[in-house]
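ingest -> fold -> write
write: protein_1
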Amino acid sequence: MILREKPGTAELLFALRGSVLPHIAPQLALVGVLAVAAMLWDHNVMPLPHLSATPFAVFGVALSLFLGFRNNAAYDRWWEARKLWGGLLADSRSLAREADLFLDDTEIRMQLLRSMRDFLHLHRSALRGLPLPAGEGPDVKLDAMNRLLAEARHNGRLDGFGARTLSARLSGIALAQAGCERIRATPLPYVYSLLVFRTSWLYCLLLPLALVEPAGWLTPVFALIVAYTFFGLAEVTEELAHPFGNTANALPLDAICRLAEIGLAPHLGEAAPPPLQPVNFRLD
């Protein structure tokens, strides 16, 4: 995630960190070259067909509406993922307080909280597609936490009300985990990406034919502005649609896990680690 405090005009105009410009630069270069070629051919070789701007205006409005709808759908996925991880952070802190309240056995309490910390890191790694230790995984860790509570209840070290409270907490954690896995396993329909890709390219490649007569030598400039808008929105959507990825605009799962470690540390009798800080405005 990119974190900038009150960026100025110059930063907004020229910042590359967190911008989609480096990702769409090849597309922009191709559109610019073709626009220049069309302009030079029309002026120096033979006139090209000069298309009316009216169809492009109608087509552009329709494409903009579709891109906006797709961008809203991608942002909904990103924001839901952020709320789910915010819930996991709150659950980890509440679990620590509830464990202090209901579990008198220090060894069991420490084991439960360490398992919670491990679960968050395993869950983060699984969502990002990172390799997990053999025989380990977020589900395995949650099952181990549940067995720990069951054994404590069976041995009389946890009363019924405490068992019910802690079990409900684990259920909430499992529900948030399932929500994250649903987002990761169910991308936006592929047909959306296919339609946006084809229509954006078709529009940007044909646009110089409508601009070459009224815009003249400014045809490449206007063509690049339009291409930046459409290709940029498409790229932003792709990044937001995958909130657990490693892009600059993905969720800072490492930083969220570190916040959970900070919250659990006092209950584990450990020194709290420092929070992660952005590096070149990027927080992972």
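write: protein_2
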Amino acid sequence: MELFQYPYMQRALIAALVIGLAAPALGIYLVQRRLALIGDGIGHVALTGVGAGLLLNRSPVLVAVIVATLGAIAIELVRSRGRTSGDLALALLFYGGIAGGVMLVGLSHSPSANLNAYLFGSLTTISPTDLTTIVVLGVVILVAMLVLRPALFAVSHDEEYARVSGLPVRTLNMLIAITTAVTVTIAMRAVGVLLISALMVVPVASAQQVTRGFRSTMTAAMALGLFAAGSGVWVAANADTAPGASVVLMAIASFLVIALAAAGWRVLRRRRVPAAAPAAPEPHEVLIG
């Protein structure tokens, strides 16, 4: 615990906890919409923003937010049209994003152009400015996901029903896409663009093993995300491992423990329930002819 006396470790812990709360709060809507891996695609696009920020000598995180938001809007437009060419367009956007990011980072010749810090995260190098950006945007995402929960759930569960109910479906879809882009970009320095999807999805999958209602699943997922973030930073500080990878591995370990415990509980419940006794046969009527 002595390491947490240093300011850089305190910033790392705060950033991880904020992202650990915000990512599952958003991820539950992505899982409901069967878009669990969209964070990976937006992360590829965000790398172009990182490269552009380094090349223009601007904040890579803020430029990545703008570029990823534009990419998320494009993804949502392609998805909403539902054309067969949509998958091809998304693939071009994703692969073009990561290729453009690598090229722009190379052209920037910046002494701080460490691509691994954005691919896999670098919690211990988060500056006070980065921390402020992460906290402010993370709180905005968290508040939006909680306040708009009924409307977002309706859109994620059944768009046609939500449209008939008078909800602004297109606006809400755009909100989910934009908040996904913002979440991915603020989490780049914490867990990396290649690992952020895990923090969005794995706590939700873990919570679904033991909960039934949407609200209880969301609450449990946020609690598990908070645990994974805090314990992951602690493991990284004591074992000298990569913080982003440690956070994700703690989330996956939690999923395995919960899944095994839930499976064992179901087996015990089946054994405790006594087999129903066979019903007595009804007496046949005797017909006297």
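write: annotation protein_2
Residues 243-272 form the longest helix (30 residues).
The chain has one domain: 2-270.
pipeline exit 0
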